[in-house]
Structure formats: C-alpha cells, structure tokens
Amino acid sequence: MAALATAVNILGMLFLAHAVYSAYEHSLLPSSSTPTAASYILPQALDPKVNLPLDITLETLFSVFLLCAGVVLSSPELKPIQWNVWAGRLERSKEAREIKEVGVGGGNPYAGLEERAGFLDIRAASRGFEEWRQQQDGGKIES
Amino acid sequence: MIDEKDLARRPIVQESVQHNARTVSNIRALTASLFGVAAGTLGLESFPGFIFYFLGTATVSMLIYALKAESKPESYFFQPLGDLWAGDLFGGLMSFVLTWTLFYGLCKA
After folding, report:
1. Are A6 and A46 part of one and the same domain?
2. In a domain, B23, yes or no
C-alpha cells in the first residue's frame, strides 16, 4: 500500500510539474492573452475563463486528482471509534498485548480496574501459599 | 442529538476520535495547497476559484470515504456529516489562496 501511494504521488508530481511548466510556456505566447469566448450556459460571474489548451487543463486536473489520491493513501489508517471494536482489536493484536511499562499495554483497557493491588486479600493469598508449601513438603517426604 | 444513554451503552474512544480528526485535518491541509497550484495554473479568478476549492475538498472527502473509511464513516467519525464531509472545510482556505495567488502570478503575469 505504501509503495503504491509513493508511486501515485511521484507520478502526480511529475504530471503536475509538466502541466505547470506547459502553462507557463503557453503564457509566453503572444496569442495567450486573447480573451476567451463567453460561456452560453454559465453566468458571467461563474465563467472560469480558462484560455489554456484543453490538454494542459486536463493534465493539471488529472495530476491534482492523482496527488490527492496519493496523499489520502499515504496518510495513517483511521482508528475505529466504537469502544467494543477498538478494544477487540487491542486484545487480538499481539504487539498491543505486550506489557511495556506499568500500566502501558497489556491489551485490556480495563486491566487497571480488574487487577487492583490495593484490594488484594493478602491473608488469603498467604494462607494459600502456606497450604501449597505444606503440600510440596509432604510430597518431598513421601518420595 | 447526542443521546447520553446510547453513549453509555456504546462508549466512544476519545483517542481514536482525535486521531481521525487529525488525519483528516492533515489531508485537508496538504490537498488545499495542491488545489491552489491547480487553480493558479488554470488562471481561475474570483468565484470560480473558490468553487474549484470546494469541489476539490468534496472530491477529497469522497476519496477518504472510499479509501480510508471503507464506506462506513459512522464507525470512524462520531458525526460523519460534520467530521468527514465538512470537517476542517475552511482550515485549508488560506493556504489555498496563498498558492493560488503565487501560481497565478507565475503563470499569468
């Protein structure tokens, strides 16, 4: 995608440079300052009065369209704004689940609420550890 | 109309909203000066130049809609009408006028 965007951008720049240079060269011709015929359809105020040859006009418009497409393609991806879509993507992607710092990463945006050290029942945890150690000791004696 | 109950049921990620708005704003700023180059090269004057700018921004909105938002603007923008179609509509107008006058001067004067 990035290579395509770069290619479209470069192509657009080339076309635009060529079109602008052609328009400049055309402006040096003595015939370039003759006024254009008034449009029959558009009112006087909205008539664009372009007196460039049709190919330069079309090349300018085409190159600008190419460059617009290239700019849009090369811009960063949009992120979904619904919480469920966004969080689902976070939990599914491997690099987002990695814990880089305390409170950064982990994949779960509610991790801070779900694992609260201040609410940890330390007595129950140490009782569980004691039981586990006794089991280990018992296992050692039996073996 | 913002329905608070609806927002509580389906919350919005503020960070993504800001990221999307910034992306659209960057695209608009870049393309506005491009439209200025085109308008000046074509030698547009007064109203047709501004009409050209608004047509161009509409084209860019269409491109964002088709290429970036996957034809579902409501999942990337909180208010698709305001944030995508008319988002930052006048933000690029001054840079448009700047490059418009520059290239008009280069190619016409």
Report:
1. yes
2. yes
Which of A74, A105, A121 represents a domain boundary (last residue)?
Answer: A74
- Which of these, A75, A76, A73, lies nearest to A4 by C-alpha position? A73
The alpha-carbon gap from B90 to the nearest alpha carbon of chain A, in Å, equals 17
* Distance of residue A51 Cα from the nearest chain B Cα, in angstroms: 8
Reported ipTM: the value is 0.86
Please name which of A110, A73, A113, A75 lies closest in space to residue A90, comparing C-alpha atoms. Answer: A110
pLDDT at position A133 is 92
Q: Out of A23, A83, A84, name the one closest to residue B107 (CB).
A: A23
Tens of pLDDT, residue by residue over B10-56, are 788 888 888 888 888 889 989 999 999 999 998 888 888 999 999 99
Contacts of A13 by beta carbon, 8 Å cutoff, 6+ apart: A63, A67
> What pLDDT digit, counting tens, does each position of B11-24 carry?
888 888 888 888 88
